[in-house]
Amino acid sequence: SPQETRKSSPTGSVTSSVSTTALTPSRQLTDAEKLRKVVMELVDTERTYVKHLNNLLEHYLEPMKRETFLSNAEINALFGNIHEIVTFQRQFLQNLEESLDLEPEFNKFEHCGQFRNVLFAIGSAFLYYVNHFKLYSSFCASHSKAQKVLHPNEGNHALQEFLAARNPKQQHSSTLESYLIKPIQRILKYPLLLQQMRNLTDTRADEHVHLCEALKGMEKVAEHINEMQRIHEEYGAIFDHLFRQHQKSCKQPIDLSPGDLLYYGGVEWLNISDFLGKIKKGLELHAMCFVFKSAVVFLCKERLRQKKKLMGVSSKNATNEVEIIRYQVLIPVTEVQVRASSAKDMDSHFLWELIHLRSQLQRRSEKVYVLSNSTADFRNAFLKTIRQIIRESVRNMSIPMKNFGGSSGSVSGHSSQGMSGHGHGYAGNSQTLERPKQQITIVHGSHTLGKPKKKKSVYSSIDPPAAAAATAATTAAAAAADPSASTSPSTPTSQGATTAADQAAALASPQ
């Protein structure tokens, strides 16, 4: 059989290449040779991909920042969160290369079963980083924006001159457009490679099951990215408008990019008449709620069915749907509360309340949106996710405290990680890229990864007074998440606080 030689790459990692011994046309590759070929295709193309990402940064992004022909907003539209993707992919490449290093005799394997450790390591890398791949949702969703910047209605001659200078040989593979499409192509390639590896393993083998799990995870990532693109196409313009309006009136940072969308879905807006007045019968109104890491967006749209007129004659069958946004609001996480209705109402109608807290500074009274979902699961998912972002917001505000002196429609929900049935859930990207060494445990054919060590509490390094304030702030967050929840009699409260941020600040202030 043909032998592969291994050599060191410039970075010191191990690479491989097929020796000059050629296969005769009549000879077919063995399954072991096919498997080795797929594994090396994954690793080699990953190296090439990371190289292309580095070229994108060095030859286009960084030089473009020094020019003036594009605004910061246009540069962001072009490159999105590419820096995060590059940082992640460098780490992922390292993990793939380490998978090969597990077996010094990798190129001599003659049976598929010998690849067991390598395949386990590759599958583990995909499973461990599966949520990190959701970074691509923002990049892919904003690709249409990048095209508008590259091809404006009125030509940007300075931009075109810059792009030509960056690619003097005018090679298509080195154009900015070619580099920008590579992340989209790559994220779609992973499931195909995993599928090929899975198909070349014994269905009874443990590594086959492990690769199946990795493949399912990456297929869910692809579904998530497609769904985020759909959301961006349908609601992106609304999110952009709300973001601009928020930036004009408030300096508090928010992010409405697809990567920060945690949960969304249709809801029934029960007290709509309190906001829009009397609603005519027959109107098609659809309310939607989107929960981002830093804000909640609530909107209501009306669907109109207009008859098309052909040559001045109205056709009964030809209709054109038009959607009008009747109501839209952005509620920053520091100004939001949720409240579950009474047990009786909750069980029968799955009711809950979304509350936009009053603000003395903005002269805004409290607004309560009474909402309903079709199932308890969807209702509870909204409550849980919004409470989660409130707690996280207060926790983030607590860290520096040591500086102180002392209508009806679709009512299903979608989480951007995989709720069974109707939604796609997303718990957010882990911030830890370094993959800890893990022991793969096999129990009756199932595979579990050794759990990473539990993170140290964010309050462990805070001095005692500040730690007490931080704890109180967290309690305030819980109260903000659900005012109906009971609180400890010993917990200090601030009568003047109206938002979670106000409560945290009041609790942290020295008495």
UniProtKB/TrEMBL annotation:
A GO molecular-function annotation: guanyl-nucleotide exchange factor activity
Domain DH: 34-228
GO BP terms: small GTPase-mediated signal transduction
InterPro entries, alphabetized: DBL_dom_sf, DH_dom, GDS_CDC24_CS, PH-like_dom_sf, PH_Tiam1/2, Tiam1/Tiam2/Sif
Low complexity compositional bias, start-end: 8-23, 409-419
Residues covered by region (Disordered): 1-23, 405-430, 470-511
Chain coiled-coil ranges: none
Protein name: GL12357
Organism: Drosophila persimilis
Gene that encodes the chain: Dper\GL12357
